[in-house]
Write a structure and sequence with these properties.
- There is one protein chain.
- This protein is α+β, with helices and mostly antiparallel strands.
- It folds into two domains: 113 residues, no CATH class; 131 residues, Histidine kinase-like ATPase, C-terminal domain (Heat Shock Protein 90).
- The chain is 62% helix and 14% strand.
- It has seven helices and five strands.
- Helix 1 packs across helix 6 and helix 5 packs antiparallel against helix 6.
- This is histidine kinase.
- InterPro entries: HATPase_C_sf, HATPase_dom, Sensor_HK_TwoCompSys, Sig_transdc_His_kin_sub3_dim/P.
């Protein structure tokens, strides 16, 4: 009995040592994953802050002075109409041209915040419009309930598909394209698959691209707590897959003002 106990204790010790060794072996990988996640968050925050800075600059230094100048032009037009009404035509023509330019600037700002097609057409029809003419054969599908998607998820989905289709148009030389969206209780999943030439093989040892369209798609997915992956083989097409959680982190609190209850 004593020998059996000793043997059992030895086996338990060996098992514990093996488990500890396996745990220690995973620590460097976990550390790398944590560091990659931290860098990804930092890039997202930097991108978001840069976008806010650009928007503030456009409003404060661009649109603001333009509107102030239009107000002064209206005053000048009023004085011209009162004193020299025969000269009012050219003044009003110039004012109209400046107003048209200002409207265009406002539309560009609004498009940067949320694509108007989402409000005008809805997500599916907006994606169909994006994909129209992209390839000889285009198929856009949506499985599940289309109603009441979170606004942030709609924008992320639209931007990811928009970027993926831009890459297809520029590089894929594809004859067929499938855009499939599926909604379940927790997520919206997206797949964009083409029959084109595929992506070139990256250099040996190179990590995932950190700039350009592929990186932007990953950032748009990460902003809503999701992920995006791109798989491709030369000559066998490219597949972009994304998962966007419907419960966007911070979305409820940010848009309702409610916090977590403890």
């Amino acid at each position: 009995m004593k020998a059996l106990a000793v043997r059992a204790a030895g086996l338990a010790g060996a098992f514990a040592a093996g488990a500890m060794a396996a745990h220690l072996a995973h620590i460097p990988r976990l550390a790398r994953l944590t560091a990659d996640l931290q860098r990804s968050r930092e890039r997202i925050l930097a991108t978001r802050e840069e976008e806010r800075r650009r928007l503030r600059h456009d409003l404060h230094d661009g649109l603001g002075p333009t509107l102030a100048g239009l107000a002064m032009s209206l005053d000048a037009a009023r004085l011209t109409l009162a004193g020299e009404p025969e000269l009012i035509g050219p003044v009003l023509g110039e004012l109209r041209d400046r107003l048209a330019t200002t409207v265009g600037q406002i539309r560009e700002l609004a498009h940067g915040l949320r694509p108007p097609a989402l409000d005008d057409l809805g997500l599916v029809a907006a994606i169909e419009a994006l994909a129209d003419g992209c390839c000889d054969r285009v198929d856009v599908r949506f499985d599940g309930d289309r109603a009441d998607l979170p606004a942030a998820v709609e924008v992320a989905a639209y931007r990811i598909v928009e970027e993926a289709l831009a890459n297809v148009r520029k590089h894929a030389s594809a004859g067929a394209l499938l855009v499939q969206l599926a909604r379940d209780a927790d997520d919206l999943t997206i797949m964009i698959a083409d029959s084109g030439v595929g992506l070139p093989e990256p250099p040996r040892g190179a990590g995932p691209p950190r700039t350009g369209g592929l990186a932007r798609m990953r950032e748009w997915a990460a902003e809503v707590g999701g992920g995006c992956a791109v798989t491709s083989r030369p000559g066998a097409g490219t597949v972009v897959s994304a998962r966007l959680p419907l419960a966007v982190p911070g979305y409820h609190r940010a848009f309702t003002g409610e916090g977590e209850r403890t």
